Amino acid sequence: MTLLAGRTAVITGGASRSGIGFAAARLFAEQGARVALLDLESAGPEAAAADLGPEHLGLVCDVRDKNACRQAVDRAAEAFGGLDVLIGNAGVVYGTPVMEISEAEYDQVLDVNLRGNFNMAQAVIPHMRGPHMGARNSGSIVLISSIAGQVGGGLFGRSHYAAAKSGIFGLAKALARELAPDGIRANAIAPGVIDNDFTQGRMTREIKDDIATKIPLGRLGTSGDIANVCLFLASDLSSYMTGTVLSVNGGLLIA
Ligand SMILES: NC(=O)c1ccc[n+]([C@@H]2O[C@H](COP(=O)([O-])OP(=O)(O)OC[C@H]3O[C@@H](n4cnc5c(N)ncnc54)[C@H](O)[C@@H]3O)[C@@H](O)[C@H]2O)c1
């Protein structure tokens, strides 16, 4: 089964090989999509895209920069002849207690996790609905939030991260309402604790193992677990779903 045959996708924060974005890109490519990986220069998006194959694209794009988002998305849409899917995945996290969060750290966390998705939505929408050339009056926007946005952080991310990730729920729901008449769906995913390099070693193996004992399914998630749900929301399997939040956490939050 090729769920994304002929489709095209833009994935932000997609260059990190152990990350959710790259796992989604690989799965989308296997399912027939052409993928544009957008990431910081330091993450090497061109090399990451080359690992997927020659039909994919890697573009340097800091999602905090609205113009950079527009330029990268326009380039991808032009190269692919249209755009069907956005996976808004770029994110940063810090476990800083509230009174120690500097303005600069607050701005970085809010701007990457929340404003970045807003910037990207503004960049992709014209390609998904008319009158832009190649617009299809269809599309799927998938924003990667976090369990931190549901329970107020607490596992690693603190107040700024929880606020940004909660904001993603509102953003996804508002986009869903506003864009439904154009055939564009918008949904959010709230991953639990994923065993990858996101915290850059700041969450130790010991802490992760301790969290695993509290997860009903008995293990941390993998980037692939989240990529599978990205595929579901990106594809027509979820054609009647918009404005939802899918919790993918092994049962860590059963509400
Ligand atoms: N790993 C977890 O436990 C976990 C849990 C819940 C939610 N999430 C969310 O999943 C998403 C992906 O994270 P991951 O776990 O794959 O970690 P990751 O570190 O592998 O991926 C994050 C990516 O975002 C990129 N990025 C950072 N700042 C950027 C910017 N300004 N512009 C563009 N790209 C930027 C990084 O270079 C990296 O490739 C994030 O939004 C994160 O908040 C992760």
Characterization of this structure:
The chain is α/β, with parallel strands linked by helices and 255 residues long. It is built from eight helices and seven strands, in the order E-H-E-H-E-H-E-H-E-H-H-E-H-H-E. It has helices at residues 20-30, 45-52, 66-80, 103-128, 148-151, 159-179, 205-213, 223-234, and strands at 8-12, 34-39, 57-60, 85-88, 139-144, 184-191, 245-248. A seven-stranded parallel sheet has the order 3-2-1-4-5-6-7, sandwiched between helices. Helix 4 (103-128) runs parallel beside helix 6 (159-179). It binds nicotinamide-adenine-dinucleotide (NAD). Nicotinamide-adenine-dinucleotide binds next to helix 1.
